[in-house]
């Protein structure tokens, strides 16, 4: 497993499938359940499991688990993921899984369905959620301030302070022609 600072760790598809199946077999109580997939800080070329892995994990579930799975929460879905699942999901994902996906753009919306503290949220997911709170269009693939100019300190002067340094001719011109 390769983990970069501030990013989701890179995990292979087979390892993810083994992990999910192991957790379900060893820790799942009886009755209906949900899964939480945290898509925070995923990069398509780097650590995105993709629909094919999600499909394989779901298809390899024993039938009783598929029936008991109520919802797959998809936390912090990016625009690309939403579009891919919306356009290709019906064809590519098993019908049962496609209709169980629920997109959750922020942690605060997840707490409406899952009690806070019932699931452990990694720090990088919490940090990503804070970024999205301050830049809400980022989760739709829109970076409104890519140069982060809004983070720069404000200039401590205004144009009006220099008005008294204009020459008398400039002031006469600006009053009469502007």
UniProtKB/TrEMBL annotation:
Pfam families: CRAL_TRIO_2. Gene3D superfamilies: CRAL-TRIO lipid binding domain. Residues 13-130 form the CRAL-TRIO domain. This is CRAL-TRIO domain-containing protein. It comes from Oryza glumipatula. The lineage of its organism: Eukaryota, Viridiplantae, Streptophyta, Embryophyta, Tracheophyta.
